[in-house]
Amino acid sequence: MAKTLQIHPDDNVVVCLETIVKGEVVSVTNGKEITALDKIEPGHKMAIRDIGSGGNVIKYGYPIGHVTEPIKAGRWVHTHDLSTNLDGILDYKYEPDTEDINNKIAVMGSKNATFKGFIRKDGRVGVRNEIWIIPTVGCVNNIATKLSKIAENYRKGSIDEVVAYNHNYGCSQTGDDQENTRAILKDLIKHPNAGGVLVLGLGCENSNIDVLKPYLGDYDRERVRFLVCQDYEDEMEEGLVLLKELIDKASEDVREEVDASKLVIGLKCGGSDGFSGITANPLVGRISDKMIEHGGTSILTEVPEMFGAETILMNRCKDEKTFNDTVSMINDFKDYFIAQGEPVYENPSPGNKQGGITTLEDKSLGCTQKSGGFPVMNVLKYGEVTDTNGLNLLCAPGNDLCAATALAASGAQIVLFTTGRGTPFACPVPTLKIASNNTIAEKKRKWIDYNAGKILNGCSFEELSEELFDKILAVASGEKVKSEIAGFHDMAIWKRGVTL
Questions:
Q1: Which of 282, 306, 421, 483 is deepest in the core (most CB within 10 A)?
Q2: For residues 380 and 445, what is the distance between their CA atoms, to the nearest angstrom?
Q3: Residue-wise pLDDT tens for the chain (500 aa)?
């Protein structure tokens, strides 16, 4: 097996696939041999040409920053000698390949597949039939948790689980910050993976039940119950009465054969490493394309991890309006950083850097590969539910829990989560973990659902994309992912304002 990988012919660095020791002679592209000048760990970069001070480092065929001192071929390229090229808010120009966009749109929905899901009254389809307890405020989190544990004893029929989705918000918030919380709560209350929902309020909070109800609009009143804890002497007793009613109703639901066009998948990465952009993320990009060919929908988020690769997405926008919406999403997020006095382009985490990712461009060019190659059809605000098939962009941060919750709130029934470092977390919908390398897949078998690291062993993207697509349909039809088997359930709301 080769010890290095040159991702694009124009690259002047290669990714090391295993540890390279100092002084080792390494064969790179076209039989060229280079002597390693440093010890270089897997996932990290080695220069294959001399690069003068200030010269660009090219990876994925694009600059990922500039070197801060002259470097020789064979040198380790990382944070000690590479710095970002990104700076400030940019002007963008729409430069689409119109023929390619039109050709891709023409084949959307051209393929057929099915899964077995729960058809809801609003026409959306759930891949789970769970009973959710949604607190309106963090003050009742413990009550929600206790109710879910007791109500598990009454679970029957087709109900998968009774789950409390706790959070810390709903009160002591102002303006848009409070509106964001209400939007996410509304989205989860109406999510198709929930066969029944108990909305649990305290009574005196800003986002109390009476305030929240108008946000729901038209909803299935047989599937949603409300409980204001301050109104009852024994809120536990009343809560169990309501949960039993929801369980009785939802337990009769049955899975039906449904077209794959009803699937919405969220695309997310976290704990990335130097292999994420060459295995797991491009594999998920192929899954996104495959889902769209079957008439389905994918949602890409993590706006800060588009910085440096955003023009690739912008030029794939279906039209100029969608392009302008994408520009606004990118620049508004940069303004958000600037308003907080934070650097816009200081994003890779310590774990990312340890895994071989150096600059934000390096991370973003790998991250955005999850979007595949189809046109951008829609741009969603935080808390907005998609109604557009095809590739959607969603405004949300890179934080794993916040972004994955935002994907679920926007309508994703499943989240595909690629990782090179591993993580046990889940979100309100099945969170399928895809390893970027063999080491983490082997080490964390109780976390990882699928190993994209097999690409490093010679497996083809075509073979693995067929295999992974089949697994996604199986998960949509009821197969549990590892975090569900472990009983993990998480949610997080994006905090954007002051706390009173």
A1: 306
A2: 34
A3: 689 999 999 999 999 999 999 999 999 887 889 999 999 999 999 999 999 999 999 999 999 999 999 999 999 999 999 999 987 788 899 999 999 999 999 999 999 999 999 999 999 999 999 999 999 999 999 999 999 999 999 999 999 999 999 999 999 999 999 999 999 999 999 999 999 999 999 999 999 999 999 999 999 999 999 999 999 999 999 999 999 999 999 999 999 999 999 999 999 999 888 999 999 999 999 999 999 999 999 999 999 999 999 999 999 999 999 999 999 999 999 999 888 888 877 666 788 889 899 998 999 999 999 999 999 999 999 999 999 999 999 999 999 999 999 999 999 999 999 999 999 999 999 999 999 999 999 999 999 999 999 999 999 999 999 999 999 999 999 999 999 999 999 999 999 888 98
Q: How many domains does the chain have?
A: 3
If asked whether residues 346 and 421 sit together in one domain, one would say yes
Same-domain status, 317 and 458 = yes
Q: Which domain holds residue 300?
A: 260-485
Q: How far apart are CA 451 and CA 280, in angstroms?
A: 8
SS3 category, 26: strand
* Cα 20 from Cα 123, distance rounded (Å): 55
DSSP state of 357: -
Report residue 342 as tokens: 């934070």
Cα–Cα distance between 284 and 297 in angstroms, integer?
Answer: 13
Whether the pTM exceeds 0.85: the reply is yes
Nearest in space to 204 (alpha carbons), one of 137, 285, 108, 123: 137
Structure tokens at 146: 């206790």
CA distances from 89 to 43, 337, 444 (A): 30, 11, 40
> In this structure, what is the dihedral angle of CA atoms 467, 473, 478, 482, given to the nearest 10 degrees?
40
Instruction: Please indicate, yes or no, if residue 167 is contained in any of the structural domains.
Output: yes
Shared-domain flag, residues 64 and 189: no
392 with 264, same domain: the answer is yes
- In total, the chain counts a number of residues equal to 500
384 and 479 co-located in one domain: yes
Distance CA 324, CA 332 (A): 12
Distance CA 217, CA 230 (A): 25
Q: Is 200 helix (H, G, I), strand (E, B) or coil?
A: strand
Asked whether residue 493 is domain-assigned, the answer is no
